[in-house]
Structure formats: C-alpha cells, structure tokens
Design goal:
The structure is a single chain. Helix 3 links the parallel strand 5 and strand 6. The protein has two domains: 180 residues, 3-Layer(aba) Sandwich (Rossmann fold), CATH 3.40.50.720; 115 residues, no CATH class. Strands 3-2-1-4-5-6-11 form a seven-stranded parallel beta sheet, sandwiched between helices. Strands 7-10 form a two-stranded parallel ribbon. Strands 8-13 form a two-stranded parallel sheet. 34% of the residues lie in helices and 19% in strands. It has 331 residues and is an alpha/beta fold. The radius of gyration is 21 Å and the shape is globular.
C-alpha cells in the first residue's frame, strides 16, 4: 500500500511512518524536514503547508492512504482540497481536547458534545484554541474518514517531555510528590501502539470517529507499576489540589508542573473516556510499565526532554507540606 504521512518527521508522524515501513508499505513523508529525520525506509518530499501551492511537490503522486496530524485548519483544508479522493483512505489524528464537557466520566466519541469550531478565518491553532481548531480540522476532513482523537501520547522520542517526567523522576527513587489521590483515574497511549492502530485502520479502510487512548487506570497503580519496572525504590506522598495550587504547582505539562495531573472535579471526564469502541476496532495498549522502561532508556541514550517540577522545586513543596502537617498535628 502507498501511504502518505503529512508530517512524519516528529513523534507520532514518525512512528506511523516507521510502523508502516516495517509492515512492508511504500511510505512517503511530506514535510519541511526541519523537525527531525524521517523514519528509515520512508521517502521525504519537502513541502510547505503554510503557503498556497505548498503541496505542489506532491502533484502527480498517487497514494492509497493519507495520514494527517496537523493542528492548523488552513493546512488541513489545503490538504483535503489537493489530495482527498474517493478511493484514498484518509486518517486525521485529532484530540480529546475537542470535547466541550470535561467533567462527566465515561463519555464516548460517538455521543459526546464538541466545542464550537474556530471561525473560518482563523488559519492557525494556538494552545488557547487547540481543541476548537481541531474541531474545525475534523469538519474539513469529513466524517467519512477515520478520525482518531488521541489522548495523552507517551513513549520514546516525545518532544513534549510530559510523560517522560515520571520515569525520570521515579528512577531517582526516594520520596516522590504525587498529585491528588492514588485513586484518581489516568489514561494514556504509547505512541507505538497508536501508530500501529493507525496503520491497521488504513489497511482495513476503517472509518468513523474513535478515541485513541488506553484503558483507564488509577494514578496509584500507574506510578507503582512504573516504579517496579524501573527497579526504583520510591515512597509516594499524595498531596491534594488546594495545597499544590497554593504553591504554584501547575497542571498537566510545562515548567513547574506535575504531568498527567488535572484538578478534580473540573477534569473528571478528561482521562476517563470510554475507549471500548477503539479496542473493538483493533487498538491494543501495552502495559505502561513497558512504556516507562523504554522511555527511560531513550532519555538516558539521547538526553531527551523532561518537563515538570525540578528536583529543588519538588523538594521545596514536600518540605512545605511536611511543615504544615507538623503544625496541624502538633508534632
């Protein structure tokens, strides 16, 4: 099968290209070629999706399947206009950030309400409008395609450093600051599992809208399993939302954050998606312990990014927590 990956030089796009090549497909990656190398065995065609006519280097090429991971509505509209044909299977990788309600647990892709899309004149996404821009991208692609709404993607070569915080932190051992409660729900997907499913969907010409995430786990289970896989000796100190926010510990990702943490009940539905339709359609998720082990190996080998609390920041928050507890208990 001839597969075109629009992108293909970073994280998920590269993983899709790598898996497709390993499966014996003829893979072309179309990108500026600035984010990093493409997968071994794939062919690179340089394009610029931000300009009219930027897809011209693909003229005359024919493909059986196309995979697009863009977050920018104008890029998606240009790709659809230039490349979408009735006999070409189209995959668009969207996000669970498209959903309007993050509070209700157990929502499904086929019934959950969406955000309003960004206005037609908005061509580029920003972090502030990320979900709404992806809705506009989905509408440009159309529901006769395979739309995969990914959750938090983890694994080797992750440029965001989000999940990587946890294997890196657990490997150091000792007292670990853990956010919320060990019973809080979390969901993630290994990039390699998501890539395999995307290629599988193209092979079967699967269409429809799915949430591409792994099963629901508790944060306590996740951290304990990852620590065990890394042979790390850890004790977990669970600290609630009010204290973390009072000490400027931030949510989800970025500097001074605890990745994978979102405050409850505001985000009780964000990492409790009902992904049974995706699993019935072939999505297989490896144990998070394997993801943690492989991510740490990649971090050590490549000095990959880790984003979150620094060791000093974590130590200071823990010290403040223990001081407050001592005062409250009179110890």
């Amino acid at each position: 099968m001839r597969i075109l990956v629009l992108g293909g030089s970073q994280f998920l796009g590269r993983a899709v290209a790598a898996h497709a090549c390993a499966a014996g497909h003829d893979v072309t990656c179309a990108a500026r070629g600035l984010a990093g190398p493409i997968a071994a065995g794939a062919r690179l065609i340089r394009i610029d999706r931000d300009v009219e006519g930027g897809l011209a280097p693909l003229s005359g090429e024919t493909f059986d399947a196309i995979v697009d991971v863009s977050r920018h509505p104008a890029q998606v509209r240009r790709a659809v206009a230039a490349l979408k044909r009735p006999n070409v299977h189209w995959t668009f990788v969207s996000t669970i950030s498209v959903y309007a309600d993050n509070r209700i647990p157990g929502q499904r892709a086929d019934t959950a309400l969406l955000r309003e899309p960004v206005a037609a004149e908005i061509e580029h996404s920003t972090d502030a409008i990320y979900g709404a821009a992806k809705v506009a991208c989905e509408q440009a692609v159309g529901d006769e395609s395979f739309i995969c709404r990914a959750g938090l993607i983890a694994g080797p070569q992750d440029p965001t450093g989000r999940f990587a915080y946890w294997p890196a932190r657990l490997a150091r051992g000792g007292e670990v600051l853990a956010p919320g409660s060990p019973d809080d729900a979390v969901q993630l997907i290994d990039v390699r599992d998501l890539a395999q499913w995307i290629v599988h969907a193209a092979e079967l010409r699967l269409t429809g809208i799915y949430d591409g995430i792994g099963p629901i786990r508790t944060r306590g289970e996740l951290l304990a399993e990852c620590a065990a896989a890394l042979n790390a000796s850890c004790t977990f100190t669970w600290i609630g939302r009010a204290f973390l926010e009072a000490h400027d510990v931030r949510r989800w990702a970025g500097p001074r954050s605890l990745p994978l943490w979102l405050p409850l009940p505001d985000f009780a539905g964000f990492m409790t998606r009902d992904t049974s339709p995706a699993r019935e359609a072939g999505l297989i998720s490896r144990p998070p312990a394997d993801t943690a082990r492989d991510t740490l190996h990649w971090l050590n080998a490549s000095n990959g990014p880790v984003v979150g609390l620094t060791a000093d920041e974590e130590r200071n928050v823990l010290a403040a927590w223990h001081a407050q507890r001592a005062i409250a208990t009179g110890v």
